[in-house]
User: Fold this.
Amino acid sequence: MSPFKCQTLTIILTESCNLDCWMCDFGRKDSNAKLFSLEPFALVNLLKHSVFAKSLRVINLTGGEPFLHPLIAEYCEKIQEADLNFKLIFSSNGTLLKPMQTVFRRLKNTKNRAPADLLISIDGITKHDQQRKTDGALKKTLHNILTLKAEFPTLAIRTKFTITPVNFNEIFTSFQALTEMQLPISFKLIEYNPFYNNKNRSIQETFVLNLDQLSLVAEQLSEVLRQPAARHFTEPEKIRELIASLATPWQRKMRCATPKKSILLATNLDVFTCKEFAPVTNLRSGSLDDLAQSPKAAAIAASEAKNEDHCNRCTSEMRMPKSSWRNLFA
Assistant:
């Protein structure tokens, strides 16, 4: 087996969240929620491991709500100082203005600065607050976006719309509103994930969209693609793939690089090569050295290659065109 070389590292900084989204029982309003347990200096040492050397392109800080972690600014400073050959991405609900300003001001003054993106979840124009189960959440998020754009004009701010049975009819209107604000938007279908953000298995049934709802989703996404703004503010190929995936049965036409090129690091230091599967090791008892020879990691890669159930319902963005298969999976 070839050496494991990670291109994308996702770190769950906290399982705490200041919102109460109906489809997520991972991030929660809980003062006792778990925090990422590595100290900033220890994380920097981890980034020097050979699995990241000359291959790491993206570090994604997520949660829960990552800006609730009391040391997020320190993590970011240390990460930025460690290497310049990657992009730093924050996946956030966008409601915590002061912590965001603190982080971006400190990053602005960091000597070695890598590019930083802010990915904010916005799930509708009238349905966002219902989905987030928090009144005033959308108004606060949009205000914060405008404030950040004014103070940090070079900060790349993007939005993500998660399609659910609550907001499935607001895809096109959300696209119109957000692109008018010059905000790129991506779309993903709600997914049930017991290894990440869905510990309560009974919630799975509430995620299902019926055929009429799926048909309306496809119509709206197709209308998005017909708009001139789609070329500048969306990734049309991913939207086309999403539309295709709404058909039943569906088989992916692309291979996924996730099991070969990504690591998700949980608060308890569980290591995932794909969040659709159980962790392959834990840094308290194991090591990243084991990834290249891990039977669990190999089994996940094999499942992807066979287009098994986990992979056919996945919304990972680490897709690879067919022309890239030979080099990546040789």
Q: What stands out?
A: The CA atoms of residues 172 and 220 lie 5 Å apart.
